[in-house]
């Protein structure tokens, strides 16, 4: 943004539903990084209608791959403050073992309405419609 501090950028002036669509195209890790853009963006990721968790986004360059326990912690860090109604929830972690904890995370944060859930754990791609 250039010029006066009172001018807003064009993207922040878009309607909330358009901003949601933009954020939903990003993995959760990238969407969370938009919080530094402006006050308008600070809480937008918390109301996204679609959450996409991908394995590469949680790994820092030069550091070992996160453990399953660390990934579960990351899920909670994102899902606990989430206030929006989730329409889509996707997990893509090929090296992560399916577990009871992951099932509990999914059922805790996805209300019993028609929702699309997809996960890729151990190279098995599953899409489930919840009713």
Could you describe the 3D structure shown?
The protein has a domain at 51-131. The longest helix has 12 residues, at 68-79. The chain has helices at 16-24, 28-33, 39-42, 68-79, 100-109; strands at 50-54, 88-93, 115-121, 124-130. Strands 1-2-3-4 form a four-stranded mixed β-sheet. It is built from five helices and four strands; from the N terminus they run H-H-H-E-H-E-H-E-E. It is of the alpha/beta class and 131 residues long. It comes from Turnera subulata. This is F-box domain-containing protein. Residues 11-49 form the F-box domain.
Stretches where pLDDT is under 50 for at least 5 consecutive residues are: 122-131
Radius of gyration: 16 Å
Report the average pLDDT across residues. Answer: 71
Helix content: 25-40%
**Strand line-up of the largest beta sheet:** 1-2-3-4
User: Separation of termini?
Assistant: 44 Å
The quaternary state of the protein chains shown equals single chain
- Biggest sheet architecture: 4 strands, mixed
H/E element sequence: HHHEHEHEE
Individual helix count: 5
Total beta strand runs: 4
| Tertiary shape | globular
Q: Briefly, what is this?
A:
With about 130 residues, this protein is α/β, with parallel strands linked by helices. Helix content is about 30%, strand content about 20%. Helix 4 packs parallel to helix 5.
């Amino acid at each position: 943004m250039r010029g006066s501090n009172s001018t807003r950028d064009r993207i922040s002036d878009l309607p909330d539903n358009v901003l949601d669509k933009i954020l939903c195209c990003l993995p959760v890790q990238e969407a969370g990084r938009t919080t530094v853009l402006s006050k308008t963006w600070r809480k937008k990721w918390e109301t996204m209608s679609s959450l996409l968790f991908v394995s590469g986004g949680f790994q820092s360059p030069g550091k070992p791959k996160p453990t399953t326990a660390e990934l579960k912690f990351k899920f909670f860090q994102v899902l606990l403050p989430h206030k929006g109604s989730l329409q889509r929830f996707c997990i893509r972690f090929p090296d992560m073992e399916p577990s009871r904890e992951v099932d509990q995370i999914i059922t805790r944060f996805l209300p019993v309405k028609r929702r699309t859930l997809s996960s890729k754990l151990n190279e098995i791609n599953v899409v489930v419609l919840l009713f």
